[in-house]
Amino acid sequence: MFDTTMPIPQLVFLIVLIAASYTSYKTGKLTEGGAITGGLIGLCIYIGTGYTGIAMLTVFFVLSTVATSHKKQEKRNSGEGAHSEKRDARQVLANGGLPAILGILATAMPDNTLLATVFMAAAFASATADTLSSELGTVYGRRFYNILNLKPDEKGRDGVISLEGTLMGIAGSAAIACVYSFTFGWNGTFFNILIAGTIGNLADSVLGATPERKGYMNNNEVNFLNTFTAVLASCLLLLL
Asked: What mean pLDDT is predicted for residues 215-228?
């Protein structure tokens, strides 16, 4: 007969994942659909890339939650909050959908797990950079520019960047690169993830200044494409 007993570490992880999803829902960080979706994404990531993937997901979620909540009343009063504090299933998929797909691919092709983990880190680096640059940039930025022509533009509009926000975004990408490097060592891959995450974040601003401003795309679609762009950038950097 087959032994269907779940190993203790996997059982503990599953319990923690369910508890974290439930807590995120009860504390108002995620909607019910967002919590369920987030739990499924976490499971896909864990199965494919283990605790390293989960650590990257956790760092992204914590930093994004803190950045979104930081001075929320000030952002609400000025109408400049870039992200809703309570994320729904579509918003969760926009940021975590591609990492989940990479987790599934790593499970199906275990020989490519390391490569999938690098790409996952690039995706999370971009998503983290986007949230930090937009949420904190609107608070601490001093001068704001349209990314297409670098002319002064209105704070909080799609496609508008600031030096302070961009630097905070780079710091977010670096945080994800550090998580990867703690597991796999400090080498050139750190800079691959850092650069790819920054490219993805800048691509988000370019998309925001063009199709999103014109109403051809929504924020969730732009967020997914910025993670996809980061993965492509990471792939190209590996080929150089």
From this structure: 96
